[in-house]
Amino acid sequence: LCALLQHAALLGAVHGTGQESIASPLPPHIVLLVADDLGWNDVPFTRTNACDIETPTLSQLAAEGVVLHNYYVSPICTPTRNCLMSGRHPVQTGLQHGVIRDSVPNGLPLN
Questions:
Q1: Whether this model's pTM surpasses 0.85
Q2: What is the number of other CB atoms lying within 10 angstroms of the CB of residue 32?
Q3: SS3 annotation, the chain
């Protein structure tokens, strides 16, 4: 994930708006959208013509940004969010099997 974010930052620096200053470059704006249970044909910007739902804002973000096509997540939300927040594989934090419910008093380990 860290390598992926670095790649996105480099793309932002190379393909910026042209308003960045060479002496003091602005940090890139990275917006990472993760949607649980979102299928390939559930959004129109995949150009499969299988989606009947209009998503003008999401489609604009996809057209102006970087769409990651071949990156995979865990089949449930907790391991995926664990990876995003820690940069570690869920097995390393013990969060590979279940879902952390809102009533559970703990979450991602701090160590």
A1: no
A2: 10
A3: CHHHHHHHHHHHHHCCCCCCCCCCCCCCCCCCCCCCCCCHHHCHHHCCCCCCCCCHHHHHHHHHCCCCCCCCCCCCHHHHHHHHHHCCCHHHHCCCCCCCCCCCCCCCCCC
Please give the chain's pLDDT, 111 residues, in tens.
445 545 555 554 444 445 545 566 788 788 777 776 777 778 888 877 777 778 888 888 888 888 877 777 777 888 888 888 888 888 888 888 888 888 877 777 777
Closest CA to 99 of 53, 40, 36: 36
Q: Nearest 10 degrees: CA dihedral of 50, 56, 60, 66?
A: -40
Task: Give the residue carrying structure tokens 């097995």.
Answer: 91
CA distance 34 to 43: 13
